[in-house]
């Protein structure tokens, strides 16, 4: 999925929050929490502390949202708030923020080879690897029409209309195939992500 | 629920129109499992793309939202029409029927606002209730008194003004009582509609109801008001490609607005009836 597409989708929810629909912010939290906790975990090594800081970052983001005009992507803006919140947290605990920093524009893609320490406790790493394995295995086993539709959407960032042109089928069929593919994957990963 | 799941998937891809967006958000708010599904769909997407994630078994959203309970809900004035467009439509000008639905939705809402008047349409469910100040006719009854320097410090989102109203208050009391009443049920329905259409919204207003029907491509709205509260006389009007049919139904007035043929609009208006 392209960055532009992701940013446009986020902007729809951001506008809903700015229009008074506070619950739309809950969806943004649910969407980004695991990435934000992972990002903060590179500064704050204790997992529980990292979750508290992530919560604080989301609250700060909500308070600052009236001033967000979409000049940058929402997730870039959110990542910047998260990084600053993590650094301030370390300073408030008389701990020194790391010398190596994260470029917020690249934060979406920082892998485990970053010089900053990963929040990967063995348990977290296990879940993450297992999730990745189950998702990819399920995708491979899907009927071809479902797999192609989801792949074009998630990896190529194509709109439903473009996918319909490629697959020579109605837009409604594309929507249905992508949903069925996601549903099949969700059925497999739900037990892994139960909290 | 299956339909809601399908909408969540489309929402992730920015492929829903304004009606479906609002309805999906309402359903997610009502059914926590849908919110969890949204979380898992995004976790799966991030996993497919190899994006770093952590604490996958945790969900901090409940804690965040509880902490935000005391925070202000933002005013809808910052909401722009652009946000009413599906994200994919914003990116792809050729996305035909979603764009059509969205623009129809906006047009229908505007038309309904004209019919009912801004004061009574301010209660759209996804926006904070907006209470409008009366117009020029009551300007003399409006007195603003600014708090002096000794006043306590006001919060960031509070207005420094105290507004006193002495006229037109009945209308707002009426509106207030309507908004806080959870007991009222829809009183009207239609026994006929064109094939493929279904109801996507049913609003209860102080002196009437508005129903919106859509088929995924086009939409029309049906307004039922107590006689005397309507803005149009009985008859037919046409503007910007939309047709409006107004009909008296006993002690109520029915208005159908949409880009449907006149005969269809007339038949819909005739089919509106009180719930039994």
UniProtKB/TrEMBL annotation, chain A:
<comment type="similarity">
    <text>Belongs to the sigma-70 factor family. ECF subfamily.</text>
</comment>
<dbReference type="InterPro" id="IPR013249">
    <property type="entry name" value="RNA_pol_sigma70_r4_t2"/>
</dbReference>
<dbReference type="GO" id="GO:0016987">
    <property type="term" value="F:sigma factor activity"/>
</dbReference>
<keyword id="KW-0804">Transcription</keyword>
<dbReference type="Pfam" id="PF08281">
    <property type="entry name" value="Sigma70_r4_2"/>
</dbReference>
<dbReference type="GO" id="GO:0003677">
    <property type="term" value="F:DNA binding"/>
</dbReference>
<dbReference type="InterPro" id="IPR036388">
    <property type="entry name" value="WH-like_DNA-bd_sf"/>
</dbReference>
<dbReference type="InterPro" id="IPR007627">
    <property type="entry name" value="RNA_pol_sigma70_r2"/>
</dbReference>
<dbReference type="GO" id="GO:0006352">
    <property type="term" value="P:DNA-templated transcription initiation"/>
</dbReference>
<dbReference type="InterPro" id="IPR014286">
    <property type="entry name" value="RNA_pol_sigma70_RpoE"/>
</dbReference>
<dbReference type="InterPro" id="IPR013325">
    <property type="entry name" value="RNA_pol_sigma_r2"/>
</dbReference>
<dbReference type="InterPro" id="IPR013324">
    <property type="entry name" value="RNA_pol_sigma_r3/r4-like"/>
</dbReference>
<keyword id="KW-0238">DNA-binding</keyword>
<dbReference type="InterPro" id="IPR014284">
    <property type="entry name" value="RNA_pol_sigma-70_dom"/>
</dbReference>
<keyword id="KW-0731">Sigma factor</keyword>
<dbReference type="InterPro" id="IPR039425">
    <property type="entry name" value="RNA_pol_sigma-70-like"/>
</dbReference>
<keyword id="KW-0805">Transcription regulation</keyword>
<protein>
    <submittedName>
        <fullName>RNA polymerase RpoE-like sigma-24 subunit</fullName>
    </submittedName>
</protein>
<dbReference type="Pfam" id="PF04542">
    <property type="entry name" value="Sigma70_r2"/>
</dbReference>
<feature type="domain" description="RNA polymerase sigma factor 70 region 4 type 2">
    <location>
        <begin position="135"/>
        <end position="184"/>
    </location>
</feature>
<feature type="domain" description="RNA polymerase sigma-70 region 2">
    <location>
        <begin position="28"/>
        <end position="96"/>
    </location>
</feature>
UniProtKB/TrEMBL annotation, chain B:
<dbReference type="InterPro" id="IPR033436">
    <property type="entry name" value="MucB/RseB_C"/>
</dbReference>
<feature type="domain" description="Anti sigma-E protein RseA N-terminal">
    <location>
        <begin position="5"/>
        <end position="89"/>
    </location>
</feature>
<feature type="domain" description="MucB/RseB C-terminal">
    <location>
        <begin position="185"/>
        <end position="273"/>
    </location>
</feature>
<dbReference type="InterPro" id="IPR005572">
    <property type="entry name" value="Anti-sigma_E_RseA_N"/>
</dbReference>
<protein>
    <submittedName>
        <fullName>MucB/RseB family protein</fullName>
    </submittedName>
</protein>
<dbReference type="Pfam" id="PF17188">
    <property type="entry name" value="MucB_RseB_C"/>
</dbReference>
<dbReference type="Pfam" id="PF03872">
    <property type="entry name" value="RseA_N"/>
</dbReference>
<dbReference type="GO" id="GO:0016989">
    <property type="term" value="F:sigma factor antagonist activity"/>
</dbReference>
<dbReference type="InterPro" id="IPR038484">
    <property type="entry name" value="MucB/RseB_C_sf"/>
</dbReference>
<dbReference type="InterPro" id="IPR052383">
    <property type="entry name" value="Anti-sigma-E_RseA-like"/>
</dbReference>
<dbReference type="InterPro" id="IPR036147">
    <property type="entry name" value="Anti-sigma_E_RseA_N_sf"/>
</dbReference>
């Amino acid at each position: 999925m392209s960055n532009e597409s992701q940013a446009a989708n986020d902007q729809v929810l951001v506008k809903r929050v700015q229009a008074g629909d506070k619950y739309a912010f809950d969806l943004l939290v649910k969407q980004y929490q695991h990435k934000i906790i992972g990002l903060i975990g590179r500064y704050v090594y204790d997992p529980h502390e990292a979750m508290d800081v992530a919560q604080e970052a989301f609250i700060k983001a909500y308070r600052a949202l009236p001033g967000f005009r979409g000049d940058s992507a929402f997730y870039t803006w959110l990542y910047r708030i998260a990084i600053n919140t993590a650094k301030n947290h370390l300073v408030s605990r008389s701990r020194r923020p790391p010398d190596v920093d994260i470029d917020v524009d690249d934060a979406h893609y920082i892998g485990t080879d970053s010089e900053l320490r990963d929040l990967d406790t063995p348990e977290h790493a296990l879940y993450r690897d297992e999730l990745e394995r189950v998702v990819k295995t399920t995708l491979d086993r899907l009927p071809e029409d479902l797999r192609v539709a989801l792949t074009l959407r998630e990896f190529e960032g194509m709109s439903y209309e473009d996918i319909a042109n490629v697959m020579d089928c109605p837009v409604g069929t594309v929507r249905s195939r992508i949903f069925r593919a996601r549903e099949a994957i969700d059925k497999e990963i739900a037990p892994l992500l139960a909290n | 629920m299956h339909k809601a799941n399908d909408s969540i998937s489309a929402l992730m891809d920015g492929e829903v129109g304004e009606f479906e967006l609002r309805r999906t958000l309402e359903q997610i708010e009502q059914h926590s499992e849908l919110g969890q599904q949204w979380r898992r769909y995004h976790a799966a997407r991030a996993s497919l793309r190899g994006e770093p994630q952590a604490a996958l078994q945790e969900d901090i959203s409940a804690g965040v939202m509880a902490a935000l309970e005391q925070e202000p809900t933002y005013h809808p004035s910052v909401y722009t029409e652009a946000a009413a467009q599906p994200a994919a439509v914003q990116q792809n000008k050729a996305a035909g029927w979603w764009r059509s639905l969205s623009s129809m939705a906006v047009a229908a809402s505007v038309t309904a606002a004209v019919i009912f008047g801004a004061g009574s349409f301010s209660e759209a469910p996804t926006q904070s209730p907006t209470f409008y100040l009366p117009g020029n006719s009551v300007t003399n009854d409006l007195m603003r008194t600014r708090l002096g320097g000794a006043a306590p410090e006001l919060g960031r989102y509070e207005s420094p003004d105290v507004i006193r109203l002495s006229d037109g208050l009945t209308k707002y009391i009426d509106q207030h009582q309507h908004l806080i009443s959870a007991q009222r049920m829809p009183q009207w329905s239609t026994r006929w509609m064109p094939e493929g259409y279904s109801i996507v919204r049913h609003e209860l207003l102080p002196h009437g109801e508005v129903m919106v029907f859509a088929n995924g491509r086009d939409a029309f709205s049906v307004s039922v008001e107590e006689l005397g509260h309507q803005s149009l006389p009985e008859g037919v009007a046409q503007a910007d490609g939309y047709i409006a049919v107004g009909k008296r139904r006993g002690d109520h007035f029915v208005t159908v607005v949409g880009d449907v043929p006149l005969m269809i609009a007339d038949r819909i208006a005739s089919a509106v009836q009180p719930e039994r």
